[in-house]
């Protein structure tokens, strides 16, 4: 019975493999034939077209270039990162540029460098263009130019793609891009990294009287003694408010939801402390204020006041702007008639209405949306519900839904982790671009996802190293995780997989999951709403590690890959479905997770539980003893001592262990047999035995 099933399984995977192989060969043939040439119609052909030379497009270009692929980056402006030539309007980036960390580890340092892109050049870092913690916006295009030049990336500037359509032939699909001169580019794979350029607007009566963030004056003098109403409570709104706090007479901010502080939500897209001076002036009652109301229900009306003159004697050019509500207006359906009567103003109905006084200016700062209009029907990805329709909907591996071969990168790909992780920001999407590139390498070139084969006895140390330094899972918490494929005496360590795509792990990565199961390591914040600066905000006791509130590693052990269905029904707020076993490593104030008792030992015990084996490290003497007394000595002895490897317990080494105070006093000089011979006395209270993760730095 079981033999038949086995065989069926083999046959199936053989067929699947054969199909994959065929696709791969066909694709390789095609890309070989059509590789970057210009045909007689003047059409350019490429395997990969990257649309946009911003941070996401250039990050992908680097990976394509490194892999030796046929690609081109198409950019409508004359230089890279043109968004940053204009935005943020007040010219200060809020992505932190932390140059000093006290560490030399490049990987670790990327945890605190939010602007650099990934490359193999150790000095191709943002710090070369700015030393400021919140750098000037102009530094960013400068950095990108440097990135393009030093990595010799192929970028074509001044190509404004206005139309994208897809054509499907019998065997394959390709994308055809048309630029402003009607030149065409044909691409087998299209990587859309256009960013977000279209200002987000809300329609209400009088919305045409409102100025937009994209075109307001950034000179504070222009706001002198003016009453200003800002629509929106995100970073662009607060940045605008902050710049005029000293010149405006009052600043009010209005949007439908209360302000969300990044340091409370752990979401960097929420209001950052660098922009929040207005909150002080609100709470200290200094003529600033925050109000909530749905913007669809407001009316902005202009009312010219008769006979009013400005202090300098000139006649007032423009009337005051009054805010009222739709329900108070009489001709509700005529948005063009701005003039309102006194009875239509809210102050007439509610005498203490907060916004009863008129404003000199109303400014809209509601963020940006993806430009869907570049796509023809045949190539347009649908709008994601997740981000209020502002972003395209993509699969867990960033391929457009209904548009195979079209991938979305960068800010526009944020619908997968909207308001959850860092995928909408440079320090997050630089890693997702790398993950997407690995998907491409496997699908189109047959290269399996990069992995490391480890003896299982080294797994603990690897996990400790990764949680101590890895920047990808740290920045893209809950989205990118290391997948460990257990294989008995060894395991396959796959870094930074897209955890939402876990059900498709095998087809995306090319790695099989064995009957030993798998472990996924992700970083997570706690989900409880707590007083983030109050007492008891941090958990320090490892036995309550699951109650950690700050970022900490969590390990999920599965016997088989979770299915798409299980993924959909996962508990709310969880990045993954309920596993066979779960382990939280208690949050750490220094984010180093190297405490022998609080981090290392509980992790080892968890791994031992999943792998069903002893993962401790032993001296040769103990292995010798175990080899004589056990049918299956510990794995460490099997892979080391019994293979004639490992450290014999010589006197010199033992003396140093002794001098370091790591041996129990009464056993010191003579030593004892068994695992106890290296039993550090400080582990005794926890009933611990030797831990292979102990850092004995001699
Ligand atoms: C959006 O795309 C259309 C079509 O290519 C273009 O005309 C328009 O300028 C774009 N909008 C922005 C804000 O870039």
TrEMBL record:
Alphabetical UniProt keywords: Membrane, Oxidoreductase, Transmembrane, Transmembrane helix
InterPro entries, sorted: Auxin_biosynth/cation_transpt (IPR050982), FAD/NAD-bd_sf (IPR036188)
Molecular function per GO: flavin adenine dinucleotide binding; monooxygenase activity
GO biological process, one term: ERAD pathway
Transmembrane segments: 21-38
Keyword presence, Membrane: yes
Name of the featured protein: FAD-dependent oxidoreductase domain-containing protein 2
Record lineage: Eukaryota, Metazoa, Chordata, Craniata, Vertebrata
């Amino acid at each position: 019975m079981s033999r038949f099933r086995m065989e069926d399984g083999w046959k199936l995977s053989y067929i699947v493999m054969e199909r994959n192989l065929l696709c791969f060969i066909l694709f390789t043939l095609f890309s070989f034939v059509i590789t970057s040439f210009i045909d007689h119609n003047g059409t350019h052909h490429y395997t990969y077209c990257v649309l946009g030379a911003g941070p996401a497009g250039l990050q992908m270009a680097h990976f394509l270039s490194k892999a030796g692929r046929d690609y081109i980056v198409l950019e409508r402006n004359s230089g890279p990162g043109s968004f940053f030539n204009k935005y943020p309007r007040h010219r200060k980036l809020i992505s932190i540029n932390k140059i000093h960390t006290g560490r030399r580890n490049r990987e670790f340092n990327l945890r605190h460098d939010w602007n650099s892109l990934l490359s193999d050049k150790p000095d191709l870092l943002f710090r070369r263009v700015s030393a400021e913690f919140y750098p000037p916006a102009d530094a960013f295009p400068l950095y990108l130019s440097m990135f393009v030049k030093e990595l010799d990336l192929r970028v074509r500037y001044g190509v404004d793609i206005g139309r994208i359509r897809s054509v499907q032939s019998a065997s394959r699909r390709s994308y055809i891009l048309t630029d402003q001169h009607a030149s065409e580019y044909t691409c087998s794979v299209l990587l859309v990294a256009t960013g977000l350029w279209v200002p987000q607007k809300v329609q209400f009566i009088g919305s045409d009287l409102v100025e937009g963030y994209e075109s307001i004056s950034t000179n504070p003098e222009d706001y002198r003694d003016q009453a200003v109403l800002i629509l929106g409570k995100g970073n662009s709104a607060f940045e605008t408010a902050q710049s005029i706090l000293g010149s405006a007479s009052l600043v009010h901010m209005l949007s439908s939801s209360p302000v969300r502080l990044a340091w409370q939500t752990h979401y960097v897209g929420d209001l950052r402390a660098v922009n929040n001076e207005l909150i002080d002036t609100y709470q200290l009652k200094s003529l600033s204020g925050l109000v909530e109301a749905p913007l669809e229900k407001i009316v902005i009306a202009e009312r010219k006041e008769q006979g009013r003159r400005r202090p300098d004697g000139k006649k007032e050019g423009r009337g005051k702007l009054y805010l009222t509500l739709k329900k108070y207006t009489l001709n509700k359906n005529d948005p063009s008639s701005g003039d309102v009567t006194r009875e239509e103003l809210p102050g007439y109905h509610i005498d203490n209405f907060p916004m009863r006084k008129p404003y000199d200016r109303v400014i809209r700062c509601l963020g940006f949306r993806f430009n869907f209009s570049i796509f023809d029907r045949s190539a347009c990805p649908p709008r994601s519900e997740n981000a209020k329709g502002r972003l395209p909907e993509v699969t867990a591996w960033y391929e457009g839904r209904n548009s195979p071969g079209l991938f979305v990168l960068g800010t526009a790909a944020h619908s997968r982790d909207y308001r959850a992780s860092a995928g909408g920001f440079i320090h997050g999407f630089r890693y997702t671009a790398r993950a997407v590139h690995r998907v491409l390498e496997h699908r189109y070139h047959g290269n399996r996802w990069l992995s490391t084969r480890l003896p299982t006895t080294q797994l603990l140390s690897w996990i400790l190293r990764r949680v101590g330094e890895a920047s990808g899972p740290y920045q893209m918490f809950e989205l990118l995780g290391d997948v460990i494929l257990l294989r008995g005496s060894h395991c396959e360590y796959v870094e930074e997989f897209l955890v939402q795509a876990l059900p498709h792990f095998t087809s995306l990565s090319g790695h099989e999951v064995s009957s030993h199961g798998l472990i996924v390591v992700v970083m997570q914040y706690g989900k409880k709403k707590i007083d983030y600066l109050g007492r008891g905000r941090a958990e320090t006791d490892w036995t309550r590690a699951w109650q950690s509130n700050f970022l900490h590693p969590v390990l999920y052990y599965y016997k088989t890959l979770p299915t798409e269905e299980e993924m959909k029904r996962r508990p709310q707020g969880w990045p993954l479905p309920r596993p066979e076993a779960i382990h939280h490593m208690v949050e750490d104030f220094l984010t180093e997770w190297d405490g022998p008792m609080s981090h290392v030992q509980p992790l080892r015990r968890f791994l031992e539980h999943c792998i069903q084996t002893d993962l401790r490290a032993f001296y040769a003497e103990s292995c010798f003893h175990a080899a004589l007394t056990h049918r299956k000595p510990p794995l460490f002895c099997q892979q080391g001592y019994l293979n004639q490897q490992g450290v014999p317990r010589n006197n010199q080494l033992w003396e140093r262990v002794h001098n370091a105070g790591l041996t129990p006093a009464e056993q010191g000089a003579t030593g004892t047999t068994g695992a106890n011979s290296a039993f550090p006395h400080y582990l005794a209270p926890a009933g611990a035995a030797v831990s292979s993760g102990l850092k004995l730095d001699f």
